[in-house]
Amino acid sequence: MDMQVVIIDCGSGLCKAGVASNDYPTLTNDTVVGYENKSHITGVSDKRYYGQEALEQKKTLSNPKVNREKITEIIFEKFGFYLAKSAVLTLLGTERTTGIVLHSGHGVKYSVTVNEGNVAPNTLRQMDSAGGDVNEYLIQLLNKNTNNSVNKKDRNAVKYIKEHVCEVMSSTVIRNKSIIKYFSPEGKCFQVGEERYESLTGIHRMIYDPIMNSDIDIRQQLCSNIALSGGTTKANGIIQRPDGYIHALMGHNFQINIAGTSEGEKLIWKGGKNLASSYSFKQLYLGLSKI
To answer: What's the order of all strands across the beta sheet hosting 27-30?
Structure first.
């Protein structure tokens, strides 16, 4: 391409950004970032808050309307932009345009059908609980073990335990009662026992329902193109359990293929990279240079 495209995926927990010529985003940071506003005392403070801390401090933080307007002006007049639907980008990240997308991020969990690059709103299914709620519940479970003392400051360690230690139960999984010890980068020890089986639930109904709400002629294609995105979908067993349950619900005549990888958090960004690399993108983006 003769232009440089910057892809920004503002997820509910993490913001990933980078240029389309790279294979992966070069910047990953908490989505919610705030600066302490002390202009009425000593001027603008340099203190920053990230993620949950920023949300908890939102009464003392500010992003004036004039700043937001200026950002929009610069993006439109100097660069140009295109807003894409995350479900479409998720499928594009797997190099497909038709399929089922299940996204489980920090604050959002939904599933929907995408047909030839178009989202089918009638198939959308959302849940009130998402990855952040799982983290909070896992903290409660871990604290039942008197050897643990887990609080909100340990959220990164808890997130890692959820994605790499916890497991989605199925009829073929036998609970291992042994204790797993995880040491955070700060050196704190977390002991994880049977609670690793109790924090996560199955997702098969969120996949099955959009399929059944879609045209019968594309159901096999949907079953063959199921894409999972978001950090919570990296958990152990997240793919194996719905595979078996969907087979039971749909019948074994349907071929089930679920694409879920350790790069689930970057799948939307990868879809943006694939879109930006396509010839059609030149006709999609908006900016003064095209007026």
So the answer is: 6-10, 14-19, 27-30
Q: Are 145 and 244 found together in one domain? A: no
> Residue 38 pLDDT more than 50?
yes
- Residue 112: which H helix or E strand, with range? strand 109-115
Q: Where are the beta strands (DSSP E) in 128-259?
A: 180-183, 189-192, 226-229, 258-259
Burial class from Cβ neighbours inside 10 Å (0-12, 13-18, 19+) for residue 188 reads middle
Closest CA to 236 of 182, 167, 156: 167
pLDDT in tens, 9-21: 988 888 899 999 9
Strand partners, 102: 111, 228
Count structural domains, the chain. 3
Residue 24, in any domain of the structure: yes
Q: How many Å apart are CA 232 and CA 113, to the nearest integer?
A: 20
Helix (H, G, I), strand (E, B) or coil at 92: helix
Rounded to 5 degrees, what angle do the CA atoms 38, 41, 43 make? 55
Instruction: Say if residue 212 is in the same domain as residue 97.
Output: yes
Please report which residue ranges of 65-112 form alpha helices under DSSP H. Answer: 65-74, 86-93
Query: Can you tell me the distance from the alpha carbon of 102 to that of 186, in angstroms, rounded to the nearest whole number?
Result: 33
pLDDT value at position 58? 56
Alpha-carbon gap, residue 55 to 76, rounded angstroms: 28
Give the pLDDT confidence of 228-276 residue by residue, as tens digits: 988 888 887 777 666 667 777 777 678 888 876 667 788 999 999 999 9
What distance lies between CA 278 and its chain's CA centroid? 24
Retrieve residue 88's tokens.
């479409």
Task: Give 199's DSSP letter.
Answer: S
Domain of 110? 86-128+203-268
